[in-house]
């Protein structure tokens, strides 16, 4: 897991901090502990349906509200405009656009969004590009967890 900067945000495990539908000891809330907070909303962008399904299951189990999925860059931009997610989990390699270009376009449209890049390749393949990117960070697909995403999104 790689982050641009900043400490990880506190992740609350208290049932009072989670939506009623996710109040279990195994679920995490992705934001600071406040009774009035709602789960952070996430858009998952990846051209592999199996990964989108896995990521949704992992993130929802950890208390995130996955509001949508997209399989390419154009769909990601449209979904982000329509759904206004707080976090976009974005694959670097998409069939129609480069993930770094999608990241820049997303942040031009919605500067407050947290974009976290992901790939099946290791971070070393993207280190230079990540350094120049406005993404909050990078998570290899095999390391995706709710706490890791929360930490990067709050960086």
Poorly predicted ranges (pLDDT <50, ≥5 residues)? 2-36
Using the alpha-carbon principal axes, give the shape: globular
Number of strands: 6
Distance between the termini: 12 Å
The percent range for strand residues is 15-25%
Any descriptors?
155 residues; alpha/beta; six-stranded mixed sheet; 5 helices; 32% helix
Helix and strand topology:
Layout: E1 2-3, E2 41-45, H1 49-61, E3 65-70, H2 73-83, E4 87-91, H3 99-109, E5 114-119, H4 127-132, E6 137-140, H5 146-153
Parallel strand pairs: 2-3, 2-4, 4-5, 5-6
Antiparallel strand pairs: 1-6
Helix pairs in contact: 2-3
Task: Report on the architecture of this protein.
The protein is of the alpha/beta class and 155 residues long. 32% of the residues lie in helices and 18% in strands. It is built from five helices and six strands; from the N terminus they run E-E-H-E-H-E-H-E-H-E-H. Strands 1-6-5-4-2-3 form a six-stranded mixed beta sheet, sandwiched between helices. Helix 1 links the parallel strand 2 and strand 3. Helix 2 runs parallel beside helix 3 (99-109). It is globular and about 35 Å long. It starts with a strand and ends with a helix. Residues 2-36 have low confidence and may be disordered.
């Amino acid at each position: 897991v790689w982050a641009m900067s900043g400490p990880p945000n506190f992740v609350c495990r208290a049932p009072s901090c989670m939506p009623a539908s996710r109040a279990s000891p195994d679920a995490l809330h992705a934001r600071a502990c406040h009774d009035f907070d709602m789960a952070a909303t996430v858009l998952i962008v990846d051209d592999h349906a199996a990964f989108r399904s896995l990521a949704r299951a992992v993130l929802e189990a950890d208390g995130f509200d996955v509001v949508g999925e997209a399989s390419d860059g154009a769909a990601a931009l449209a979904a982000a405009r329509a759904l206004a997610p707080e976090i976009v989990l974005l694959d670097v390699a998409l069939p129609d656009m480069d993930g770094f270009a999608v990241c820049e376009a997303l942040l031009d449209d919605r500067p407050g969004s947290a974009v976290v890049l992901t790939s099946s390749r290791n971070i070393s393949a993207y280190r230079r590009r990540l350094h120049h990117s406005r993404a909050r960070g990078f998570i290899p697909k095999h390391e995706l967890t709710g706490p890791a995403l929360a930490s990067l999104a709050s960086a």
